[in-house]
Amino acid sequence: MPQNIKPFKGTHYNPLKINNFNNVVCPPYDVINNSELKSLRKKSAFNFSHVLLADKSNYQSKRKTLDSWVAKKVLVDDLNECLYLYEQKYRVNGKKITRYGIISLLRMNKKGIFPHERTHKAPKEDRKKIIKALEANLSPIFVIASSKVSALTKAYKHYSKRKPFVCCDDKDKNLNRIWKVEDKKYLNSLCKEFNNSKLLIADGHHRFEISYDYFNKHKSKFKDLNYLMAYITDCQKGLLILPTHRILTIKDSEAELFKKLSKYFSIKLISKKLLASKLTKAKTFTLGLYRAGKLFCLELKDKDILLKISNKYYRKIDAYVFHSLVLSLFKVDKPIEYTHSIDEAIELSGNKKTAFLLGAANLDSVIDISSKGFKLPQKSTYFYPKLLSGLVIRRFSK
């Protein structure tokens, strides 16, 4: 039986050349805006964003940059196959939280790996060109095992007492540390237990699809091309899902807006603090709304309204209920904007736009839905913190 999880010889920054990893790592490609990209590239000529993101479709120049870093030994290859234990420490509401998992190769078995979000064409086209030009997995997709993996806990307890191979902070000052797992005892137990687990793609749906497409077109060109690089964790307390709020540009006046919404909701003015609490604790679909300086709480008049959504699993996901029940009420003039912060949603809305504030998806519900083959609207989940890019990459080998 083929292995689902495999160690590999990763490519990473040379600690003899790079003395501050904060200057060379970067967020994932899909959360870097133009101003942040400029800031990242000013940090260092070797910041990973120079490779990760193409400017003006200059994909081949990204390959030249990557090859030059390897030639200069700024990036080096590991001599032995290993797994990379990856820890992130962060704070939420003053509380310290830790999440850990492994970076490994993951077999692209569509029967055993469950995506949960729909994908869009434009990001896939961009990543297709990147993988074709660079012949590498530049950043891991994010995968969750649907049950607890004891081997991961044991490996973390062992390695976290040692000095990490990499230690750096992300832009939110979250601590990121990596250890190389080369001990066969831990390698074997991790691979064996993860091989027997059901796996959910939490983030990286576009990269999974384009990697699978690339494998089908170039099966014999490289070794282990039916595998891609993945960060894999299990169901642990450190798995935090943030809500994703929607900012819409709609023509309806305030009176027209509330008239349409009052079909389903009771609408009351509310404070920001109380709204945040309600969205967190609500047992059925509850919605926040910001319009021209005023904040409202929208609660369903009749819970049976949710029966309009035929799939009972989707009724538990705010993003799906919003798209089905609320978004269909309005004509949206411009692309939807997204944020995970109520404050930023208010700021982005200004006096002309309307912010709809949602509750976060529940992890158990997401796993349940995806394992049954159903998919959610894009931007339904946001796992925090994001994985850094540039810690480890996987170059294809023959």
Please describe what this structure looks like.
The protein has 398 residues and is an alpha+beta fold. The protein has two domains: 245 residues, no CATH class; 116 residues, no CATH class. Helix content is 30%, strand content 25%. The chain has twelve helices and 21 strands. Helix 4 crosses helix 7. It is globular. The two termini are 23 Å apart.
Write the layout of secondary structure elements.
Blueprint: E1 5-6, E2 11-13, H1 34-43, H2 49-52, H3 59-71, E3 75-77, E4 83-92, E5 95-107, E6 113-114, H4 121-134, E7 136-137, E8 141-145, H5 150-159, E9 166-169, E10 175-181, H6 184-195, E11 199-203, H7 205-217, E12 227-233, E13 240-242, E14 245-248, H8 254-261, E15 265-269, H9 272-281, E16 286-291, E17 294-300, H10 318-326, E18 337-339, H11 342-349, E19 354-357, H12 363-371, E20 382-384, E21 394-395
Parallel strand pairs: 6-11, 8-12
Antiparallel strand pairs: 1-5, 2-3, 4-5, 4-10, 5-12, 7-21, 8-11, 9-10, 13-20, 14-18, 14-19, 15-17, 16-17, 16-19
